[in-house]
Amino acid sequence: MLEYRLMDSETLLAAFDRQMRRDAVPDGPGAVVERVDGVVRQTGARHAWNGVLWSGLDEETADAAIAAQLRHFGALGVEFEWKLYSHDRPADLGGRLRAAGFVPEPAETLLVAPVEALSTEAEPPGGVRLVPVTDEAGIDLVKDVHERVFGTDGSRLRQRLLDRLAVDPESLIVVLAMAGEQPVCAARLEFNPGTEFAGLWGGGTLAEWRGRGIYRAMVAHRARLAAERGYRYLQVDASDQSRPILKRLGFVELGTTTPYLHQPR
After folding, report:
1. What is the number of structural domains in the chain?
2. Chain-wide mean pLDDT for the chain?
3. Where is the N-acetyltransferase domain positioned along the sequence (predicted)?
């Protein structure tokens, strides 16, 4: 904990950039990570995450790099995302992406915490239990929670999770919070071999079940599992709803990230 508090946030951000973005590896079966035209990009199946993970651009090279990615993903006919962080350069990269036809989604906060500093003891409220998801029936419940919480189609997420459970189940832990037979929250923990970072994703709780400590219990449960695997840090792209909770739990804000989406023509 002391080492983390004394660590310069810029040093930690640089480690995140290097390990999770610049040196990224594919996040699913069949995906390919390439380093070309000043960016690191992932290309996969239509339902996979396709997009730009990192860029090392400036005012002179940005527009050409954007055009190159439009050609690459356009030829494949897939939606792709340029994952822009607040410290990326040039400073007007977001404006250049919008001018090229990208549409920004709401910004999220990049939060990181040392696993050893997080509580792993928080339990869900009475009547709620946390259960692992290991099969298609469980993934269908996760999809249902995702759609009800976030209001977006969960079909692509469902297929991505099924792919990973079938091919590389050790890289992913999916958890449901169940109230009786009703799923009320879904979350996952993604391991990134060769890095110090594991990622917390999902964590969406049905509106009528919020404020009861379910999300906090989900974080503690996943922190315990990350500690068992020897990961040093947990990383979250947090919404405005989860950011205050995570900061109270010990996560530190390192910046923001904005998904810029481009739809195939």
Report:
1. 2
2. 95
3. 128-265
Contact call for residues 227 and 71 (beta carbons, < 8 A):
no
Indicate if 120 and 173 belong to the same structural domain: yes
- The residues near 121 (Cβ < 8 Å, ≥ 6 apart) are 220
pLDDT digits (tens, 9 = 90+) for 71-87: 999 999 999 999 999 99
- Over residues 157-166, the mean pLDDT reads 96
Distance CA(16)–CA(112), nearest Å, equals 9
Among 127, 41, 128, smallest CA distance to 78 is for: 41
- The CATH number assigned to the domain holding 128 equals 3.40.630.30
Last residue of a domain, one of 109, 140, 156: 109
Domain coverage including residue 164: 114-255
CA distance 13 to 50: 23
Q: Report the sign of the C-alpha dihedral through residues 123, 128, 134, 136, in that order.
A: negative
Per-residue pLDDT for 2 more than 60? no
pLDDT at 8: 79
Beta bridge partners of 39: 36, 55
Closest CA to 215 of 107, 119, 122, 116: 122
